[in-house]
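User: Can you help me understand a structure? I only have the sequence.
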Amino acid sequence: MDIMTTVIIVTVIGLIASVVLVVASKVMYVYEDERIGQVAGCLPGANCGACGFAGCSDYAKAIVEKGAEITKCVPGGQGAIDAVGQVMGVSASAAASKKAVVKCQGYSCNTGKKYDYQGISTCAAASKMFGGPNDCSYGCLGFGDCVKVCAFDAIQVVDGVARVIQEKCTGCGACAKVCPKFIIDFIPEDTKPSVLCNNKDKGAQTRKVCTVGCIGCMKCVKVCPVSTEDGQGKAVSVKDNLASIDHDLCIGCMQCANECPVNAIDIPNCR
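Assistant: Let's start by predicting it. Here is the structure, written out as tokens:
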């Protein structure tokens, strides 16, 4: 077989392959609405999952193809909502912004260790070893699982306790999802106090493991000046030996914090 024949054969094969690829691309083509890319471009690209979808692209596809609400991007806020709304021809307002708060003050000066943990340096792993090495089995483990998943560098571990940098927090919820102790909550973006404790043991037991743990003494409830509409409750309540504050009712008077004998109530910040 001479060279010319070989060239012709290869050329013919190439043409046939090209035709097959063109036909296949037409037959197997899946139409994608161009608005998906436009909506995705309006989102921050953090892929934090706060919207309830796998990422920004998945959320954008759900908005365009399934009519998902355009208000679910917490990090993007009203700016992202407005941009997406312009693409989709709709308008909406963002829900009230909320920030993460770690319900624990278990610094080394307030609590101790029941054993020296030498295992995998994650909160998830440490929590499986008798609830973790800390005296308080309800408190922050301090290995920073929440820090690792925060896409906004809004969490630090200070003296063994995670602390949220309020100015950077977007309220996406990624940190709360990975916390094995479920001590990360979300509060309105304002200067209202929170109960910085998650210990549900009786007061005497709590005092043994943490000097600033809530003891369920009810003093905060008694001094709270805000009652529910039916007059049967207060902005502060105690359940399972642990106080909690309803931030929708709270007026930020700080009487509960001032009355708390163990300083378990304070305005969250990064210390």
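Now, to help you interpret it: The chain has a mean pLDDT of 91. Strands lie at 98-102, 155-158, 161-164, 184-188, 194-195, 236-239, 242-245, 265-266. Let me know which part you'd like to focus on.
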